[in-house]
Design a protein that fits this description.
It is globular and about 75 Å long. It has 25 helices and eight strands. The N terminus is likely disordered. By secondary structure, the chain is mostly helical.
Length: 555
């Protein structure tokens, strides 16, 4: 009861020196309460723009001189992120080099650098135009999937010294490619995500970092790793954040959803509908991911530097990605170091007179990494698909606050109010104009089954006619919609589509038929089919349908 009067009496006789001390303390407290200072530099700063200009001028001359496919893709990505000019010769040159390497053969997949090359090419093409380069991305992604090791990570091929282990650097690049592919609307198999997630969790060093070649712990008790580095540890942490996004896990304040689910307060699981592109179910306890991220953040805090001894430009690229993903999943970190300013100053000190940077990855990749850091490459990707805070959807797709009123269309968000216009579209299909209708036709393949069924019931004949449209995109979209509706009446139309001259149309028809018939994945034709296999598949599907609809007729 007497503490407050007593304190008041003690303060009353303060001398000048003591009063100055109190003033100083008050100022100090006020200073601590002020917002953290803004970065001195940004991607728009003149100093940053000057460095980017010099680096791009170098890449214009040297960007396609590195014969490695991944180096060419990184050069193209740097130009794309910095200048947003898809027609630039370096960008188009990278596309040409990627196409020259396709189709991939066994010898291609057995090259030591192929995981890097496939990943970089996927990232680049997904950023450039995922619709225009869909077939190339699908083939590259199929190669990446083939190279994933049974242990879950990616690494060197058979015959290499490290063929039995997973490589942290390759695995983190593959995860980034998976994230970019999912963001662009490509399905990412749950098995890929689960495998690499477990691999990262079981190869973390007890200190929280990651080493070069992951030594897999026999259980969940971590074992010592060798060659733990800043670049690898930072990239691995970024991968865990990307996995959180792919699997639908993000930080959330304490609310009823977290309390009812029993998950820790720091994260919650987001249930995604079967209609979402890239839908996955993570089989790993989210608590294990949370613990791994906590250890990794502690390692980062204890070991942070802007200028590590190994792979410094590769590290800067990973650092920007890690901090962007961290904010993406958890929100802004109040204790974040001024890493961007420090990185800019490091790049200022080390840029060569010709505009390049060079450490251990090669002059073209290192220069590209420098540009990607300066322009905040990962931040550009994130901002392209969502805004931070309320009204977001895990998986890289930005949503309004009321997520029940939207649908994902080819990696983009379309409000259901807009989808209502599909009714008008269906009514106007008699006057086909593929150039104007493609965007809406793409939406048909991604509507929830009940929405597709509703449209199909009203416009069945038009949709089936659309499956024979002269527009390739229209055919694919209509076939996807018919498959999602699950209506047996559409089977003859889909079997007819199996004879299409476009392999992607054939694959769409095959998948739609498998979905309706609930038949296994080996019911043909295969992905790379011959004309004979195509005809054999058509006859097999007709035989199957006649077995359940003896009166069926095929035009």
């Amino acid at each position: 009861m007497h503490s407050r009067p007593r304190l008041h009496r003690q303060l009353r006789p303060l001398g000048q020196a003591t009063r100055l001390g109190v003033v100083a303390l008050t100022v100090a407290v006020a200073t601590l309460c002020l917002p953290a200072r803004a970065n001195r530099y940004s991607p728009e700063s003149p100093e940053v723009q000057a460095m980017v200009d010099r680096a791009l001028a170098f890449l214009e001359k040297q960007g396609l001189e590195d014969p490695r496919l991944g180096a060419e893709a990184l050069a193209g990505l740097a130009f794309l992120k910095a200048r947003n000019d898809p027609s630039h010769p370096v960008v188009q040159g990278a596309v040409e080099q990627i196409r020259k390497r396709l189709p991939l053969g066994p010898d291609d997949l057995n090259q030591s650098e192929m995981v890097y090359s496939l990943s970089a090419a996927i990232i680049f093409l997904c950023e450039l135009d995922p619709a225009a380069y869909r077939r190339e991305i699908q083939e590259l992604f199929a190669g990446l999937r083939t190279l994933q090791k049974p242990i879950g990570g990616w690494g060197y091929p058979a015959g290499h010294l490290h063929e039995r282990t997973g490589d942290t650097s390759m695995s983190q690049f593959a995860v980034l490619a998976m994230w970019e592919a999912a963001r662009a609307g490509f399905p990412v198999p749950a098995a890929m995500i689960n495998g690499v997630t477990i691999w990262f969790l079981r190869t973390q060093d007890p200190s929280g970092g990651w080493g070069y070649q992951g030594q897999i712990a026999p259980g969940w008790e971590l074992v010592r790793q060798t060659d733990v580095r800043h670049s690898l540890s930072t990239a691995a942490l970024a991968s865990l954040y990307a996995i959180c996004d792919l699997a639908g896990i993000r930080q959330k304040g304490k609310d009823r959803s977290t309390e009812e689910s029993g998950l820790p307060e720091v994260i919650r699981e987001v249930k995604r509908g079967s209609g979402d592109v890239g839908d996955t179910q993570l089989r790993v306890d989210p608590k294990l991911i949370q613990m791994a991220i906590g250890r990794a953040k502690a390692w980062q805090q204890a070991n942070y530097t802007i200028d590590p001894p190994r792979y410094k430009y590769y590290y800067l690229y990973a650092l920007e990605r890690m901090w962007t993903f961290r904010e993406y999943v958890e929100g802004p970190a109040p204790d974040a170091p001024p890493w961007y300013d420090q990185g800019v100053e490091l790049l200022m000190r080390t840029q060569a007179p010709n505009g390049s940077w060079h450490h251990e990855c090669g002059v073209v990749p290192d220069t590209a990494f420098g540009v990607l850091f300066l322009v905040r490459s990962m931040k550009k990707s994130v901002e392209k698909v969502r805004s931070f805070g309320e009204g977001t959807l895990i998986g890289g797709r930005g949503l309004p606050r009321n997520t029940s009123d939207v649908a994902v269309v080819g990696g983009q968000v379309v409000a259901k109010m807009e989808l209502a216009n599909l009714e008008k579209l269906m009514a106007a299909l008699d006057e086909e104009n593929p150039q104007e209708l493609d965007e809406w036709l793409e939406a048909l393949g991604y509507l929830p089954p009940e929405e597709t069924g509703r449209l199909l019931s009203k416009h069945s004949r038009k949709l089936q006619a659309l499956a024979g449209s002269s527009s390739r995109q229209a055919r694919i979209a209509a076939i996807r919609a018919l498959g999602r509706a699950g209506d047996m009446e559409a089977v003859p139309t889909l079997i007819f589509a199996l004879g299409d001259s476009d392999p992607e149309v054939v694959q769409a028809a095959r998948q739609a038929l498998r979905r309706i018939a609930r038949l296994p994945e080996d019911f043909g034709p295969p992905d790379k089919f011959t004309p004979q296999q195509q005809q054999e598949a058509i006859q097999a599907w007709k035989k199957w349908f006649l077995s359940i609809r003896p009166d069926a007729q095929f035009d």
